[in-house]
Amino acid sequence: MARITIPTRDQAPTNTHSTLDAIGSQVGFIPNMFRMLASSPDTFAGIIGFQGAMSKA
User: Fold this and answer.
1) Quick one: pLDDT at residue 54?
2) How many CA atoms lie within 13 A of 15 on its CB side?
3) What is the pLDDT of residue 57?
């Protein structure tokens, strides 16, 4: 079975670093789920936007 490599913060695309840093400062670490999502910046931005909208609902 193939395994998915979870990128470190530094391996993630640079345009996701500020969001990953914000998550890390809120939680105390960067959860694997967010590091994995950061592999696709468009998906990452969509999920973060959705999560923000749901937290206001």
Assistant:
1) 95
2) 7
3) 77
SS3 21: helix
Say if residues 8 and 21 touch (Cβ distance below 8 Å).
no
Does residue 53 carry a pLDDT above 80? Answer: yes
Query: How far is the CA of 21 from the CAs of 4, 15, 54, in angstroms?
Result: 22, 11, 21
Q: List, in sequence order, the alpha helices (H) in the chain.
A: 17-27, 32-37, 41-56
In 3D space, the residue among 39, 23, 43 whose CA is nearest the CA of residue 31 turns out to be 23
Coil, strand, or helix at residue 30?
A: coil
Please report the sign of the dihedral spanned by the C-alpha atoms of residue 37, residue 38, residue 41, residue 44: positive
Position of tokens 């993630």? Answer: 12
